[in-house]
Amino acid sequence: MASIASSSNGFPTPADPVTSIGSVNTLDEVHYASTDFYIGLGLAVSSSLFIGSSFIIKKKALLKLASGDTSQRASEGGYGYLREWMWWMGVITMGVGEACNFAAYAFAPASLVTPLGALSVIVTAILSSRMLNERLNLLGSIGCALCLLGSTVIVIHSPKEEEVGSMAELALKMKDAGFLIYVILVILATGFIVVYVAPRYGHTNILVYISVCSLIGSLSVLSVKGLGLAIKETLSGHQQFTNWLTYFWLASVAMCVSVQLIYLNKALDIFNTSMVTPIYYVFFTTFVILASSILYKEWSCLGASDVIGNFVGFLTTIIGIFQMQLFRDVNISLYQVQKLVSRPSASLANADFSSSSTNLVDDYCMRQSNSNRRMVYT
């Protein structure tokens, strides 16, 4: 430490006051950044818990309604769920989760908050198997473990502090050529997909509508983060509601989220949810990480090992999400795996799996044929 020096008589004397003050300020900034990181991390995890639980609560309300007057069901065009207190509790729970997610972007880097959204899928999978009697097979359990492992790796290697700490700094960053080029490319690509690609291939290619959601979604996260920064500064005593940039971010959030919801609903209306969910997660998270690294320079302070760690953690989470969604209907259990392992290889050809309703290949073929029979273009 340079804060204490020794005099000629051997007694310690204070060092340069400027150096001491600078050291204290640096320590305070590091402590403040560390506190913000853990607040954002806690809010992101809480958001996943609330959002994942809200799906289960609303599903239980809809199941309760389905056991009564079927004409009031949502699938039949009814609105009976509006009279169910449990459904409203699910809506409130989701609102709390979205509020936590919004606040998390103000404290932690987007490259940390967005990938942790995968935890809500784990919460939903686990609670549905416990509270809705839905089956979570062995592959689904392994997928949950992979998501947890990938999320942990992301938390360990993610940026711990942000390069943009005020609206003034953000205004300067918005003038960077890299950010302007990215926004222009996103707008041009989205316009081309909406005008030319979507009318021709939107009903046959799952990537069309998901690409629109993901590209615009990356801008919506940047807007949410900018708006959160404005609110955070206002609460700390620096009024930002007189700043035009605050209203720019607010308008961007409203516009981007609206477009995002429209095209996500189109994708869900045409394609299977088990395919839309993992593909959308991969595309959306990738574009958010790219956009935040361009505007907020979140990866500029990371070393090569942390960059690789983030990539590995994200890839592990992707594998877990796909495994949970794509193989959730495959009838496989730990007992069947143990039975396969314990059999000699020569007797596998004569193995009797008649007790299993499906296997991996049969299940895939059956789902493909059913999908082809049910394919309806709107």
Structural features, described:
Pfam families: Mg_trans_NIPA. InterPro entries: EmrE-like (IPR037185), Mg_trans_NIPA (IPR008521). Keywords: Membrane, Transmembrane, Transmembrane helix. By secondary structure, the chain is an all-alpha fold. It folds into two domains: 158 residues, no CATH class; 135 residues, no CATH class. It is 71% helix and 2% strand. It is built from 13 helices and two strands. Strand 1 and strand 2 form a beta hairpin. The chain is globular, with a radius of gyration of 25 Å. The N terminus and C terminus are likely disordered.
Note the total helix count.
13
How is the main sheet built? 2 strands, antiparallel
Please list the strands of the largest sheet in the order they lie side by side: 1-2
Question: pLDDT below 50 for ≥5 consecutive residues: which ranges?
Answer: 1-15, 17-25, 27-32, 353-368, 373-378
Instruction: Look at the structure and give the mean pLDDT.
Output: 78
Q: Rg from C-alpha positions?
A: 25 Å
Strands, count: 2
* Gap from first CA to last CA: 71 Å
- SSE arrangement, N to C: EEHHHHHHHHHHHHH
Q: How many separate structural domains? A: 2
Based on Cα principal axes, name the global outline.
Answer: globular
> In percent terms, what proportion of residues is strand?
under 5%
Helix content: over 70%
Structural class category: mainly alpha
